[in-house]
Queue: 2 jobs
Job 1
Amino acid sequence: MLHTINKSPFEKDSLSTCLRYADKGASVLFIEDAVYACTKGTQFEKAIHDNHGDIKFYVLGPDLEARGLDNSNLTTNIEIVDYKGFVKLVADNEKTQNWL
Amino acid sequence: MEEQELESGKIRKFIYVNRKAPHGTIYAHEALEVVLIAAAFEQDVSLAFIDDGVYQLKKGQNTDGIATKNFSKTFGALDMYDVEKLYVEKESLDARGLSEEDLSVDVEILPALDLKKLFNESEVFFNF
Amino acid sequence: MKFGVLINEGPYQHQASDSAYKFIEAAIEEGHEIYRVFFYHDGVNNGTRLATPPQDDRHIPNRWSELAEKHDLDLVLCVAAAQRRGMVDEGEMERNKKDANNIADKFRISGLGQLIEAGIQADRMITFGD
């Protein structure tokens, strides 16, 4: 299953709710303001690292760039995708859960 | 051809995931309107209440003083629409100091681990 | 593959409509079919033809109309959400005795059943919202 999150983790706890539901083998994609969840040195780094291996984490590149961020700002184990990559994730996963 | 498929009775497992509190925004109210319409399509419908969504089911809501529609009463009528599968996440209730007695309708309270199994069996997700 | 898309936020206020647009554009480029784009909640405001954004900004309603024209997209505004928010097509104008309509080209107003139908018929359903 693909999970998308679009809110900053500092604004809403969608990330922790999502992680309660993301099973082994799931993918999580951060878009819009949720891209801040993948940056280095935040209180959310640990949650991402603890789940890495079971869950694959992705971030939408154009949303990252729009916010003045790039690969060098990201914590480890996050893969950057473009919109085509986003489409592929939706197509490759039978179901998508959008944690609004 | 698509209409033929509909008539042939393609039934999918829909799950409506409600995570927003009522009244402050219209999401919860309009989400319930989707559920009522969905009921007419004879699909397999489940509702899950997670995070602030559990507040939608708090009993004793009275919106007279804020002039909005008290749609919480509609939850009690869902069984007339054959919508009978309402699930509430235990962790969300606990975090908010709520228990089954605080809720206005009969629901099944499940820990996230069990609710997750239900999600895995569902086919179409609508998140509000 | 057939995608159904649900958009729950109005233009400009929230990124949801822009994200959905970019997603749909990429999906079409990748050879997928867009079964339907359904606009709900404040999302119905994407369908107004009366918007006049500054010239150096994107014109969100026109952009939808143009994409729909080019790729024959089915853009549907939920009738209940549209009535609440004053989104009106010719039929609604007559039915509710309004003195004007404001729906943009290639959008249509229809019931929530269109969303459920998309959920049944599309291979994938994705929601952009708040």
Job 2
Amino acid sequence: MTTRAEFLAAVRDRLREPIPENHLRPLTEAGLGEPIRYAVELSDPEARFLEAATGVGAEVVGRPEDDLRAILERVRDDVRPARAVVTDDPECKGVAPILASLGVEVLAAGGPSDVATADLGVTGALGGVALTGSLVMDSGRARTRLASLLPEVHLALLARDRIAATPGDFLRELSRWFPDGLPSNIVFITGPSRSADIELEITVGVHGPRKVLVALR
Amino acid sequence: MSSEFLTLSTSLRERTAAQVSDSRLRSNLARATDAFADRKAAAYAQFADPEEVRAKARAAKGEVLRRLDQILERLADRLEAVGAQVHWARTDEEARDHVRRIVQTHSAHRIVKSKSMLSEEIALNEALEEIGSEVTETDLGEWIIQLAREAPSHIIVPAIHKDRTQVRDTLQRVAEGDLSDVPGELAAFARRELRQRFLQADLGISGVNFAVAESGTLVLVTNEGNGRLATSVPPVHVALLGMERVVETWEQLDLLLALLPRAATGQPITTYVSAITGARRPKELDGPRELHVVVVDNGRSSILGTEFTEMLACIRCGACLNVCPVYRQTGGHGYGWVYPGPMGAVLTPLLVESKGAAEVPNASSLCGACWQACPVGIPLQDMLLALRRRASEEARLGERAAWGAWAAAWSRPWAYRASLRLASMAARMFNPSKVPGPPQRWALGREVPTPARHSFRDQWRKGSR
């Protein structure tokens, strides 16, 4: 079996001489410089987030001024879930008892076969991305990565002051978002699960949620 | 390779003949590739200056390639620090052995896979089936192809060559009731079927779109969610990493992450972008308990340091396929191996040593549309030309002599004129498509032009008298 040292030595060996240049199209050493400049209005991250998220098929079911109970009641009436799974994200505080009082059985997050029986997954979001309408999930806070994945409907609660303008703004500040180091799983979620593998026709809910609901807090 | 579509032992002409005359295939391809081009333009319009982003991404890849050994070393250190096990594979055989050993250690009978072109490259499924494992491709397009026992014909949309009724007929093989041909209903059927397999799986296999060396993170870019499932539900996750798919920093990743989905499908971002740093942590309730990363060379280091080095900057978006006039007529299977289109026509002869592979760069028009479409600006047409030159240097003596004579003749005015007169006479005496041997082979599939009886030069001289 090849060892790390052998593998890397073979690579190093190939790099002893400078790489030949294509004189017509030279490979410059230009540094990274400034972040990507976008031709999209980003001065109001919250407004752009809502526009982009709706554009990719997520539904906005609550604004910061809305009462949590009223939001969950609307979701219950719309989705009619029998069973919900709720994560440990701080934004989810208070969700489980309200859902229970609304007649929804609430599961504690657990193994895949449990979570798979829920028809609603309620999670917090560590942050959002305005440009793309993405939600950022952190497996460390939530303690699970399946609540946003296995149920047919995913409801995410996102604090309005945690929306980065662009993916790059988020990625450049990872140490601020994750002061204790990166969790095992970060996922940017942008709208419901989709496939275009049959005649490029967009179909939603292929493997992940069919519906993504967002409530701003 | 198990698939009848993947074989470089037949000639390029044989492989493409059937496809070019399949009008259904050609209309499926034209519809899909046109749609991609439109969506891509809209997604690029979000950049204030798309050319600036491309130039920076190309430069970033260049920086990584120049220091690839150091960056891979840093990646390996970080991966091990976060508890991943790193395996090194110089060859495809070694890569298969690593995965087989992990599978056998865990007695993993049921395996779910998320789409990975590298796994196609090393023919992993066959190797795992040989030791008795049941491998399920879970990307909808890949599953269709697996059931049809075909090879992917596009690196992003593997079943691009099939229309809805062909997909319905394929899925019907594993369905109990009758399926409709509505894409949404077919996708729902796939969800039900595959969900059970995810929940029962012993091990999940994925590719890696990008690895970030500074934190030891694997980044996966998917739309369906099968990539998340395959890397979250089973107790063991094996990730296959092509050794060039690494970046050093998250800043570099930002550039490539912005370009990949825009160039591939015209999306500003895919539905899911997963960043995996190690296996499940002690307080987490789910996620794999073991993470294995198999770093694969399989010929890549032999490209490094050559005039083809920049091919290792390829991020596998498929944009060059969608714009290629040859791919759009033939589809992916004619290229004979796992990577089709212009990127495949460059990569195949560099990774596979055979006469069949050396012939693949001829399946191009050198128009440069691929280079224009490439988000990281790989000069594909320059490489195709260089590979053709290389193949011609290894060609038979007779062929080399013929090309040499042509080059010599057309470098001298008198010989050029003589050759035209000769061609004009010859064309009137016999038709190359009727002359057995090389002339006939050359004429096949070409419209042989009829040289004018009197050349332009002759006419000019007469007219000016």
